[in-house]
Amino acid sequence: MTDLRLFGRCTKGLEGVLASEIQQRLDGQVTNVSHRQVTFSIEAGATQADLGRATELRCADDVFLDFGVVEGVSRERASLATLASGLSRLNLGEALQHITSVRDATPASFDVVCSFMGQRNYNRFEAEKMVAGEICRQIHLPRVDTERRRDADLSWRIHVDGTQASVGLRIARQPLHRRSYRTDAMPGALHPPVAAAMVLLAEPRFGALILDPSCGSGTLCVEAGIFEKPAHVVGGDASAAAVRVSAEHAHKAQTKFSGIVADGARLPLSDLSVDVVLCNPAWGRSVEAQGELSQQPDLLWKEIGRVLKRDGRAMVITESETAETNHVCHGLRLMGKLRLRVSGRWATLRTLVPDC
User: CATH homologous superfamily of domain 192-354?
Assistant: First the structure.
């Protein structure tokens, strides 16, 4: 019996973080890390619970059973037939056995999503139609209409890179990045897997005091509470409405949360009192800075430097590179940085520690 092969899709730039989470949480064997994808395996004797744990990965946008690749899928239209023919040699029906083991109900419909790297002489819809015919032939289930894709019980993923088409089937019914607690995502809300990656990289200690000084709808706060349940998570925002939404999301996720309505330039917290700061400050696009930060945005770095403990750590994500030297002026030292794509734009995730 061979090991179960899987792959996780993630935000560009987080491939290494997802690989680490897979190794730590699943004891999975990472076999390949590529553009927005981490391929891994778990033992063949994995139980239903083992496979189900793959749906609990926080840094993954989605996780799929890996059915291998179809070779020879070129940019020419004739390769659509090659793709369908290659699928006919894969045992797609085996998927239903694995999926049924981690679902509450037997799947009754499917959909398929195709994506490409590079230019092709055909579009994704033509590829999806060709692929859907072969999947339907093998698993004997109907494909949902395109406008009802979210209603599909099974979602197949075909990704073509070069002349290889990787074939996967989502384990969960919905993409993992759609968090059930996020019922009121406000403008500028951070992509949940990115928030989870920030928490993972921060490595909060047991019982740590974690602060998000510009919490918005609370994604960073909730992800922190899920990662480290004994932590004391505090979310501050100049908007009372934002703090209320954060509290509601924390309640739905069953995590601890304390909200404070406060200007990010003047936090009602003592000096050297915070173990971890997690922050996605306003970028000035969908969300504008409020209070004193709207006039003096550098005061954010001053407050982070003031409240952070000497052995603390701050994870701050910004779009602009202008912040590169600003934090240095306020007693913070750059420990590392990571470039990633957030909301279609390049951003920088900085790891900062007190310069003492």
Answer: Vaccinia Virus protein VP39 (3.40.50.150)
